Amino acid sequence: MTKKAVVLYSGGLDSTTCMAIALADGFTPYALSFAYGQRHAVELDKARRYALQIGAVEHQVVPINLRQFGGSALTADLAVPKDQPESDEIPITYVPARNTIFLSFALGWAEVLGAYDIFIGVNALDYSGYPDCRPEFISAFENMANLATKSGVEGDRSFTIHSPLIQLSKAEIVRTGLDLGVDYSLTHSCYDPTPTGVACGRCDSCRLRLKGFAEAGLKDPITYVTRNS
């Protein structure tokens, strides 16, 4: 029997690794991406180009306009911080309620597909401090999913939100992906790339990615304007 799973897939390092894990665990991945008004389309272009190539049987791109609300450097005309020291404060690149919104769409599609499994590549170790990347959030959403859906109430199974990267360091994520055959040259993580799509190397996302490859003893295969690792 085919095990279907909806995989939230941005075209970035984490979500691509998450897709590979879903495949390795025997799931048939249905990839879900969002054109949510983000400041650039590089990551989404890669998602469109490579989703089926890396193993998805279907790829949906849902348009939603979070730029209409703003409130983040990724959805408003605010500068993306560069070369920032580590801080306990939630950064301006946090998009209000983004993972709640994305998981809600994933839950809706999963219910239509007859899938009870959703994969999301959130991480709570080497990450930017976003509140919707924590284990408590994933657990709470899973509980809600089984309360708020016909499938959760009447079905013979419960929904499971899989977050296989949540307790891994970025280096461990990179090693896991490489062990599963992930080609990280097909991914993009930068918050503020050049007009031609080259990663800046200085935003929080680039620095975490470079840190992961460096700690894994490897060189990131993508090109950077500034490569500090």
Fold and architecture overview:
The chain is α/β, with parallel strands linked by helices and 229 residues long. The chain has helices spanning 13-24, 42-50, 98-113, 135-148, 150-154, 170-179, 204-215, and strands at residues 3-8, 27-35, 58-63, 117-119, 160-162. A five-stranded parallel beta sheet has the order 3-2-1-4-5, with helices on both faces. The longest helix has 16 residues, at 98-113. The protein is globular.
The CATH topology, please? Rossmann fold
Read across the widest sheet, the strand sequence of neighbours is 3-2-1-4-5
How many β-strand stretches? Answer: 5
CATH architecture tag: 3-Layer(aba) Sandwich
Structural class: alpha/beta
Task: Write down the CATH class.
Answer: Alpha Beta
Number of domains: 1
CATH level-four homologous superfamily name: HUPs
Count of helix runs: 7
The fraction of residues in strands falls at: 5-15%
Profile the largest sheet. 5 strands, parallel
SSE topology sketch:
Elements: E1 3-8, H1 13-24, E2 27-35, H2 42-50, E3 58-63, H3 98-113, E4 117-119, H4 135-148, H5 150-154, E5 160-162, H6 170-179, H7 204-215
Parallel strand pairs: 1-2, 1-4, 2-3, 4-5
Helix pairs in contact: 1-6, 6-7
